[in-house]
Amino acid sequence: MARIRELAGLFLKLGTIAFGGPAAHIAMMEDEVVRRRKWLTREQFLDYLGAANIIPGPNSTELAIHIGRERAGWRGLVVAGACFILPAMLIVGVVAWAYVRYGSLPQSEALLYGVKPVVIAVVVQALWGLGRTALKTRGLIVLGIVSVIAVLLGVHELVVLFAAAVVMTASAGFGHRMRTPMALWPGLLATPVAVLQSAGRLETMFGLFVKTGAVLFGSGYVLLAFLRADFVERLGWLTEQQLLDAIAVGQITPGPVFTTATFIGYVLAGPSGALVATAGIFLPAFIFVAISGPVIPKLRRSRTAGAVLDGVNVASLALMAVVTMQLARGAIVDTITIVLTITSAFLLFRFRVNSAWLVLAGAVLGLLLG
Fold first, then answer.
1. 69, 74, 281, 340 — which has fewest CB within 10 A?
2. For residues 331 and 218, what is the distance between their CA atoms, to the nearest angstrom?
3. Rounded CA gap, 26 and 279, in Å?
């Protein structure tokens, strides 16, 4: 039970203060799980990160679920994932209540003004540590550089991940064909949405969010496209502005961006809608991790599969690096944010200050300056 309590405490904290999107969440998890608590080695952490990138769903949430399963088995899997989601769900629920009551979003610019520069420093620290572990040969360094260039040129992230895996497989020599959890996807993705759509609003909502969570790769903008097709164009349950507001709330609140579903569920059906939508969009992540998690250590012991993991890990870090560059353009905007980023990086690298305290300090500073 001690491990369960430790997992619950850590992921409740991270779900409350982890602003900045998946890259920032992953960086904070690395700081807590690898550097401070030493629950995983950097190689194990990278393997689970790579695994999270090649299955559908919210990457940082799936990484939390992987960590929980590795630390405390099936109970840990459920506790880590649920505790990472719960604070974000509650925060988004409160914002949705205010939105329904007052018709607009609460102001959050001041808060994020102080938080974003700190998040950039946290992610850079994580990239530095993980990169030193992942880039262990000249070939992997070249692969990382090529992956970054490909993403910057607009190549789809899944193509980059797949190409990196193919390159490393070829370099290791083709081994026996492996049976992986990917072979089970078609059965898992066959959600009976058509049947649910003939039922009530809550059942329909649950089915649509399960479908979205089961097939969605990519960023919040990809999520926007899925939700627009279902809730705006086909069903007409949301307006374009309500959908944009929902995506904005998912991006500016801490925890998983997929809590956009919580906001939509509340707007459409109150608290029960928020619970149903949240459960629907996150349920596939728990299923996919439960299936793929036990396989990851076995893959590492295979020469060919280990090479695939190495390639996917390097490509994952490349994606994370590009996202960080994009975030930095919007976060570091004046002298104050430059100083805040540099100071945070210095405290992280020199004194290994806990990233949670830096994020909270950035939030307070942002509110004061705002």
1. 74
2. 21
3. 22
Which tens digit of pLDDT belongs to each residue from 99-124?
Answer: 888 876 666 677 778 888 888 888 88
pTM value is 0.79
Long-range CB pairs of 72-78, under 8 A, 24+ apart, other chains included = 72/3, 72/4, 72/7, 74/290, 75/4, 76/3, 76/4, 76/7, 77/286, 77/289, 77/290, 77/293, 78/286
What is the rounded distance in angstroms from the CA atom of residue 18 to the CA atom of residue 34? Answer: 17
Angstrom CA distances, 234 to 258, 263, 264, 322, stand at 21, 19, 15, 34
Q: Identify which of 330, 358, 368 has the alpha carbon closest to the alpha carbon of residue 110.
A: 368
Q: Are 8 and 83 in contact (CB under 8 A)?
A: yes
Indicate if the pLDDT at residue 136 is higher than 50: yes
